[in-house]
Amino acid sequence: MDDIWGVHEACGVFGVWDPAGGCAQTAYYGLYALQHRGQEACGIAAVNNREQCSYKDTGLVSEVFRRDILDRLNGTMAVGHVRYATTGAGERENAQPLTIKYVKGTLAVVHNGNLVDFDALRREFEYKGAIFHTTSDSELIAYAIAQARLHGPSVEDAVRRAMGQIRGAFSLLVMSPRKLIACRDPWGFRPLCMGRRGEAILFASESCAIESAGGTVERDLDPGEIVVVEEGRVRSIRDNCPGEGRGHMCIFEYIYFARPDSVIEGQSVHQARVNAGRLLARRHPVQADLVVGVPDSGLDAAMGYARESGTPYGAGFVKNRYVGRTFITPGQESREQAVRIKLSALRSEVAGKRVVMIDDSIVRGTTCRQIVGLLREAGAVQVHIRVSAPPFIAPCYFGTDIPDKENLIACRSTPEEIRAMAGADSLGFLALEDLRSLAPDARCGFCDGCFTEKYPLER
Predict the structure, then answer these.
(1) Is the pTM of this model over 0.70?
(2) Does residue 183 carry a catalytic annotation?
């Protein structure tokens, strides 16, 4: 896919309440497992004896947090965040958790998603006297909660009232000196699950993070649900819940965003991607000698294509896992060189063969052309592209940086023109009618607005 400059996720959140303490270390493990959701910045805030402390910076989890920092953050509650910017620049000031002090005490907020009415809401708050220190929409959420708390009986009531003011995608964790609160927006765009590890209670964007922290996943939060943890007691508030099966999970969680070992709303992400490959093989069969996937999210779909078609599956690429997204930027020498730094083709596998290359998406098309070139240079005699998503025809407003229409190649080129531009022998996209067959076990509906231009929530 256009992995280096294409579709990216907003961020990942993790929270823990544990009477035994050590919550910053637990959060570290959880964030490490969520690193794929954001590589620009990360942070952890903890509460110990009702005193809040925090640390955040730009960079990867392993780069930002040393042992001495985690020791200073030790407490019985913690929230953490990994960030990829969609609203607000990537500077340190926009890193999370957002921590605030106000007349009622302290709050720490971490957010995954994107508000659709960011500009209007910010102006409204500024006219009421708000002074903002970041350009992130997450600060608007923190401000809305703090203001609601001034006139309400509890933090959870403030969260409930703030949810009525904001529109868009938000999976939130809010930590006060006594409570850890988790909630999802009423549309359920972004995932959030809950688990346990002994007496500890855990929340995370994905189930893989809870398991990496040694916990067992209990359930997904429902769209609109608020879960309150106070001294080990768990309460659920469902005033904003639209009803069972009414969510609109971003379908791209299954195609690209989530880790393959995660389970979201009852659906294995790995199996969803295998399903995509099988569907592609049925719709777009081709005579070939080898099926390969573009690392990482194309690998499972390639496995499914190979199984369905009977064509051997192989490793066509080696990915340099020591190159972060902050290293490869559009401002460097060239995008072509950036692809070569991050990816190389295995000549011993592909030379002299007809290759089916499975990619998870095509956004602008430039990276796809360069990856096909790598296979050609390695000796592939044919390259057939199969894409485990339909063509992107519309931008996303809910926490995915799918660009405006003028930057989407499917909006200005036909599939045949895209094939020619990429230098491939054939091209096949996942059919729109097959999209929902990816995740047959999911207990929710989906948002597929980037493929259909039909959104559950208008801007």
Answers:
(1) yes
(2) no
